[in-house]
Amino acid sequence: MGELRGLEEVAASLGLENNEWDGWGPGKAKITLDAVTRERQRPTPAKLVLVSAITPTPAGEGKTTTAIGLSQGLAHIGENVMVALREPSLGPVFGAKGGATGGGLSSVHPADDIDLHFTGDIHAVTAAHNLLAAMVDNHLHSGLEPKIHPGRVLWRRVLDVCDRALRHVVSGLDGGNGPVRETGFDITAASEVMAVLCLADGAEDLKARLSRMVVAYGRNGQPVTAADVGAVGAMTALLRDALRPNLVQTTEGVPAVIHGGPFANIAHGCNSVMATRVGLARADWTITEAGFAFDLGGEKFFDIKCRSAGLDPTLVVLVATIRALRHHGGAHHETPDAEAVRKGLPNLQKHIENVAAFGKTPVVALNRFPTDAPDEIALVRECCEAAGVPFSEADPFGGGGPGCAALAELVRERAAAGSTPHRPMYSLDHSLQDKVRSVATTIYGASDVQFDGRALKNLRQLTKQGYADLPICMAKTQSSLSDDPKKRGRPTDFTVTVQEIRLAAGAGFLVVLLGAMVRMPGLPKRPSALDYDLVDGQIVGRS
């Protein structure tokens, strides 16, 4: 079993020179932008592996833990590897899911720092976003040119905690602070600034994307951008350090670059392009993950991130768990129930089909839990054999790298066999309606798509303004393949409802809100925040 190393050794294992990284507190560093773009010097082409999952239970299925475990497994069998992950949001950390740094013997460290303030990137995104909001309101209050229509301000504020009371608010009250208008807060992970940071290829691209962000419409009906209100320079200054990827390590000393934190149910769900490029430039293998299940993060990884950054993964690893299959089969996820697993297998089958829709054959990794029964595992193996996809058990939590060695060997074997280029789900010149239908019918399995009145109005306006050629970012529940969180398994004969379409011109996509999806989550009845404390200088209670 490996152990934590000095950060100097971790940086050196990535070929980083001393002037290409700066210490950012114990166990953490920032990588310079020059190191990201420096020409690759390793003798063989890098391999990119995407880790995604089947539809999870509310507690998640260990996708991040498996991605970390796979990186350690590859290191264990002698490969040069790096893992690239998203930064945790305080929303889930203090909400329902708890921490997001892996678990057991497959974690990233320093876990407490990463789960909480880390290097301040998410705080910087929050500050830059809300500075723009303040400048929009000041522009409106002062009557500056271009004149903003008070009823057509699009830019809301953000906060990196779950706070349902802020979803809809009225601002400008108490006279002289106006005009009075309805607005609200989203969680920072849903901020367009977060998406811009994660998709930017460097400082100049960051500034160009920030400049394009549409914050309101003018009295003349024309879009008003962040550049129009003069906010871009100050926002870029706030994001200077946040743009630099963060270097830490796994439990076994594998380099881990953790950068950017968009959710996959309300944003595009992938770590930054810059973080991925570090791995592709400095390691032979880069393991990355896309949030929640493949119908969310996986689809957006291909249709948004790969399209924007020119990436193409060598392989897709699809994480499944017995407890999720029990859940989808209608049983309690902690109680052994082979019949429930059998009934839940269509969810796995659908995600296998979804990976194939992009031209890839996945490796299915069964993330083992102590409650898994042999007959349940046999059912999953038989399902994969029938589908013609490779299968491996893995124990990242209890076994670390050695517990994922068999999975790593399988991944290496399949990667050596080669990979065909991925196929996007839709062409950018397709109509906006057809893009939505392609994802909803092919990936979710919907029979139809219904556009509500507001969505139709958005659709007409965005098409008229020339934005219909952008890719789409579908925002829906992570708890179901459908837009109804109560529909488990593989739902059929259902209609997806589009409630709204929002423009994210700087990020370069359109956010399509489905069902009852909101972009500011709420805390559960018993939030994880109740378990946190500081005792003798140590953080306790982290999930």
State the helicity in percent bands.
Answer: 25-40%
Q: What does the average pLDDT come to?
A: 96
CATH C-level class of the largest domain: Alpha Beta
User: What fold name goes in the CATH topology slot of the largest domain?
Assistant: Rossmann fold
Number of strand segments: 25
Give the helix tally: 18
| Overall domain count | 3
Structural class: alpha/beta
Contiguous runs where pLDDT drops below 50 for at least 5 residues: none
Radius of gyration: 23 Å
* Annotated CATH homologous superfamily of the largest domain: P-loop containing nucleotide triphosphate hydrolases
Which architecture name of the largest domain does CATH use? 3-Layer(aba) Sandwich
Question: What percentage of the residues does DSSP assign to strands (E)?
Answer: 15-25%
Shape: globular
Largest sheet: 12 strands, mixed
Q: Assembly type of the shown chains?
A: single chain
Amino-to-carboxy terminus distance:
23 Å
Explain what you see.
There is one protein chain. With 543 residues, the protein is of the alpha/beta class. The chain folds into 3 domains: 288 residues, P-loop containing nucleotide triphosphate hydrolases (Rossmann fold, 3-Layer(aba) Sandwich); 117 residues, Domain 2, N(10)-formyltetrahydrofolate synthetase; 83 residues, Formyltetrahydrofolate synthetase, domain 3 (Roll), CATH 3.10.410.10. Helix content is 36%, strand content 20%. It contains 18 helices and 25 strands. Strands 1, 2, 3, 4, 5, 6, 14, 15, 16, 17, 18 and 19 form a 12-stranded mixed sheet that branches. The chain has a 4-stranded mixed sheet with strand order 20-22-23-21. α6 packs across α7 and α8 packs across α9. It is globular. The mean pLDDT is 96.
